[in-house]
Structures are given as C-alpha cells and as structure tokens.
Specification:
With 370 residues, the chain is an alpha/beta fold. It is built from 11 helices and 16 strands. The strands form 4 sheets. A 7-stranded mixed beta sheet has the order 7-6-12-13-14-11-15. Helix content is 31%, strand content 21%. The radius of gyration is 22 Å and the shape is globular.
Length: 370
C-alpha cells in the first residue's frame, strides 16, 4: 500500500483549520485544506463592496489578551485600533453597551456608581433562578432586562426567556465606569484589508481546494492523508447516528445605500420583540472608510434547517447529552482531530478558536516526538 499523499487533510478553511494548517506547514508537514464553500475564512469571510470590506456572515471583531495569539494573527495582517462600542435601540431610545455608567445614566439619570447599584439591587430577583428570565433578573434587575435583554433574547433563540434554561446566561457584566468598550481584552481591532486577506496569507504555500465537500466521498478523502483535522459539525461526521444536534441560524440582508453614514456606528442592536431583526451592521465604521455610499446588513435569527449555516449551539441539557455521546465516539478515533466550534459544539470567540488550534497542534507535535 502506498503512503498517503499528505500528512494532514484539513476539512474547513476557517480559523481553526487554517491555523492548524499554517503551523503544520511550518513544522514540515504536507497539508491539504478542503472547504465546501467557494471561499476561504468560513464565517470570518469578508468581501469588498463599494470600497468597503463587508463582513459576509455578521460582525467579527478580533480581541484577545493572549499575546502569543495576537502576535500570530499579526503575522498575516495589520490591525487597526477599532474599539467595539455597540448601541442598543429599545422603545425608540438609544442605550450604550455593554451595561455601564453611560447605560445607567440613559436609563435612570444615575450619576454615580452608588446610585446605579442601589437601583439595580432593589430590582433583583431574589429566588433561585429556574429559567433565563429569572437568571437575568437576578443579575441586572427589571429595567435593564425589560429594555435590553428580553426582546432581543426572544428573537435570538426563538423562544420566550421563560422557556429557556437559566444557564444560557451565566453572567451579565455590569461596569460601574463610563466606559463603552465592549471587551476588556488588551488587544483589539479589525484587520486592515479585511479578514479574507488573512486566510490567503495564512494558507500561502498550502494546497487548498474550495467547493469541495468531504462528505461527497469520505473514504477517498480519508485515504489521502495520514490524519484528518475535521472542523465541521460533529454529528454530521457520524451521519447523525444518535440524532441531530440543534443550532440557531442567521439570515442576512445586505443593502448598499446612497448615503455616506446611515447609523453612525458599526453595530446597533434592536431590542424590541416586534422588530424581526436583532441588529444592523454598518460595515464602513469598522475601518473608518470615507465613501459616498454605505453598506448595511440586517441580521435575522432563524431556526436551523438542512442547508442553512449553523451558528449558535442550543446548549440545553438534551443537546449536551447528545454531544457527549458523539464526543465519546470521536475520542475513539485516533486518526481524526475534531476541533473548532462545530466539532466541539460550543460558541467560541475567534481568539479562543486560534488558541485551541495552536494548543492542539502543540500536543500533536509532542505526541509525535515521543
């Protein structure tokens, strides 16, 4: 039997797969990257429209406190100094996010942390939370919940917050400073030139086949490499043998408008339940682009159906139990590495995905050297 053509077949040209492939190449391994989509970057893909880098699958802001991850990403792009400070529209009024002293002043005209804390404390739910609504009320009180969480959450998950488990919201940070920076991380920004350019540079020197579906012929693709790095849905890998894991999906509607500035901010959340979308993204504000037109995207949460893109795992007890069964199966397959948010069935920020791929490659390297 002839030796495989590649050391690693990487299924998925998103952050996890591309990071692993880059590190493997630099360690002298032969890699093939395949992706069923016609472009690189997975959900991080950007495309230039009207002189603006549009985030095809929703806003992606890179942030991390891990210097190693930050330096790795900066090998492939220069990042600008964008600071994420979204706004939220509720009941015809704009509020600052994350919840901070600006928000509390907009809600109650609170001027000091002591005033804000007193109001929140008086509104908290005191019992043991049994659902998401009670959990949120126990953390932030009635006013913040009603204005900024309830309607948005109902749209995001397609269910009333009283029907959702409490553990979906583990914490809701309250900041008692006048600081609208959404992230606390040391490093933050948007890649100048868009995200797609990062993946082009990251995968330079590596064979890539786009529009290529692993499941069209799994036996063939597995024969190509000594080992597989699989970043797709873990239940799909096993033919949904135990049942399908549940996700929420998203639908995007993009418009180019003949105005130079539509909403004055990159991200505005729409919290009222009767408005069907959850946010509008105005892409030019990510990079402070000067153009006579603008591009906006309305983001609509959707049920996940066959053919849609899975975005958010529904991490209730039933789905977690199902995932554990698939995880046990995957742990028993030594020649397949399962990684990334779909294979691990959990939402992960971009820097966490990169760090996870780096850690897995290091453990692979250690295992091969022993």
């Amino acid at each position: 039997m002839s030796a495989p053509d590649y050391d690693y077949l990487i299924v998925g040209a998103g952050l996890y797969g591309s990071t692993f492939a880059r590190l493997a190449l630099e360690a002298g391994h032969r890699c093939l990257v395949i992706d069923k989509r016609p472009h690189l970057g997975g959900n991080c893909h950007t495309e230039k429209t009207a002189g603006i880098h549009v985030h095809t699958y929703g806003a992606h802001i890179f942030h991390t406190s891990n210097k190693v991850v930050w330096e790795f990403m900066n090998r492939f792009a220069e990042f600008n100094n964008y600071v994420n400070s979204p706004k939220a529209l509720s009941g015809g009024r704009l509020y600052s996010l994350p919840f901070n002293m600006n928000t509390f002043h907009e809600l109650w005209q609170a001027q000091t942390p002591a005033q804000a804390k007193e109001i929140i404390e008086a509104q908290r739910f005191r019992g043991e939370p049994t659902n998401l609504e009670e959990q949120a009320l126990s953390l932030v009180g009635r006013d913040i919940y009603e204005a900024l969480i309830k309607g948005y959450t109902q749209k995001q998950w397609g269910k009333s917050p009283t029907e959702l488990p409490s553990f979906i919201i583990k914490r809701l940070p309250l900041r008692f400073t006048f600081n609208n920076n959404y992230f606390n991380d040391r490093y933050q920004g948007i890649p100048i030139g868009g995200y797609t350019a990062i993946f082009e540079r990251m995968l330079e020197g590596i064979e890539v086949r786009l529009g290529t579906d692993y499941f069209a012929d799994p036996a063939y693709y597995r024969s190509l490499a000594r080992k597989i790095v699989y970043t797709g849905c873990i239940d799909d890998f096993f033919g949904c043998e135990y049942g399908a894991l549940e996700y929420r999906s998203l639908h995007f509607e993009q418009q180019e408008l003949p105005v130079d500035n539509y909403q004055g901010n990159a991200v505005v959340n729409y919290c009222d339940a009767e408005i069907p979308f959850t946010r509008i993204i105005e892409h030019k504000h990510f990079e402070s682009v000067t153009t006579e037109t603008t591009v906006i995207t309305h983001e609509y949460p959707r049920d996940y159906t066959a053919g849609a893109i899975p975005y958010y795992p529904i991490n209730d007890e039933a789905n977690q139990a199902l995932y554990r069964r698939y995880r046990e199966r995957s742990d028993a397959i030594p020649d397949v590495i399962f990684g990334g948010r779909l294979s691990e069935y959990k939402y992960m920020d971009m820097h966490v995905v990169v760090e996870s791929a780096m850690n897995r490659f290091r453990s692979e390297s250690r295992a091969q050297s022993t």
